[in-house]
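stage 2 :: seqdesign
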């Protein structure tokens, strides 16, 4: 991500962006090469929002010195030949470390040229860039206006570490609670086909209403299942006690990374520390599948202190993005 002063002008002779120039398989391989990828830049996400929101994915490959160094999925919708909705969620993804400043500047200048601000065009950009003064200045330089003061925050968990290292890195209180959960007689059930998805979505929707928090729509999650389960990228784990489900979590895999998307606990599950049990076993299952990074699905220290404290207990690396722009 750019973090130097904005002084060097782009050398456009070595820079290019091509749109819709790669196959599905090539896009998946590029997402894997990006390492810490996110669900919103994955091919299944584009297919799911096409069905649920009629947003059409446009797939950019960013070239520098003759090779692809970055990718970005942009979602568009045109209505009545007048209205134009543009959504860029958590992109671009970079395939190499230490991408030069000129490449970052070139990308955002091209985005501005392709989608200039105008009446009846509704732009929403959530750049995959750390919240730094340098990055804010870069986006401002290309005419993007910050519309949300708080950037998206979450935690990355490095799953390339050995199991014993992951366990040692847990915060002491989280590890103690995990130890307790392993003595509560819980058993684990894996669902890779989605047979329990409707059950989980009904319970999580009730939680959203009671606790007044936002989350992905059931329709979007259902279509994500549709486009992921045949490739083994859908993972629902349930904690059972005496044969009854007392907790569940849902994760989606996207090439070499995964995202924790939905969770639910009954009161019995909370008493048995089922969420600790489920997340720990999810880490082990992801490692078996050669997943290297887990995005814990967002934190909010202001409005969801308990969830934030719980997720931080896993010992990952918190991050905050630069915010939303139009």
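stage 2 :: out
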């Amino acid at each position: 991500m750019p973090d130097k002063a904005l002084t060097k002008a782009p050398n456009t002779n070595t820079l290019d962006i091509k749109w819709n120039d790669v196959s599905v398989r090539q896009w998946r391989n590029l997402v894997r090469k990006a390492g810490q990828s996110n669900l919103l830049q994955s091919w299944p996400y584009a297919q799911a929002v096409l069905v649920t929101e009629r947003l059409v994915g446009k797939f950019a490959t960013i070239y520098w010195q003759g090779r692809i160094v970055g990718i970005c999925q942009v979602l568009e919708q045109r209505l009545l030949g007048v209205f134009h909705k543009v959504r860029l969620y958590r992109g671009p993804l970079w395939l190499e470390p230490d991408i030069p400043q000129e490449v970052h500047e070139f990308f955002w200048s091209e985005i501005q040229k392709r989608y200039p601000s105008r009446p009846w065009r509704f732009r929403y950009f959530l750049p995959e860039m750390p919240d730094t003064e340098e990055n804010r200045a870069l986006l401002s330089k290309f005419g993007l206006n910050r519309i949300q003061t708080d950037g998206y925050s979450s935690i990355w968990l490095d799953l390339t570490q050995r199991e014993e290292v992951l366990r040692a890195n847990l915060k002491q209180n989280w590890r103690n609670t995990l130890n307790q959960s392993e003595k509560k007689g819980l058993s684990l059930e894996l669902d890779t086909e989605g047979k329990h998805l409707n059950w989980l979505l009904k319970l999580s929707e009730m939680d959203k209403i009671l606790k007044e928090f936002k989350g992905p729509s059931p329709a979007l999650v259902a279509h994500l299942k549709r486009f992921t389960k045949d490739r083994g990228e859908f993972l629902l784990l349930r904690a059972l006690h005496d044969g009854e489900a007392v907790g569940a979590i849902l994760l989606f895999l996207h090439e070499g990374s995964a995202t924790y998307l939905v969770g639910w606990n009954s009161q019995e599950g909370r008493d048995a520390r089922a969420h600790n049990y489920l997340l720990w076993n999810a880490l082990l299952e992801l490692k078996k599948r050669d997943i290297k990074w887990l995005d814990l699905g967002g934190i909010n220290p202001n409005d969801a202190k308990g969830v934030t404290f719980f997720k931080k207990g896993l010992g990952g690396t918190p991050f905050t993005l630069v915010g939303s722009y139009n």
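stage 3 :: structure notes
- The chain has eleven helices and 15 strands.
- Residues 1-10 have pLDDT under 50 and may be disordered.
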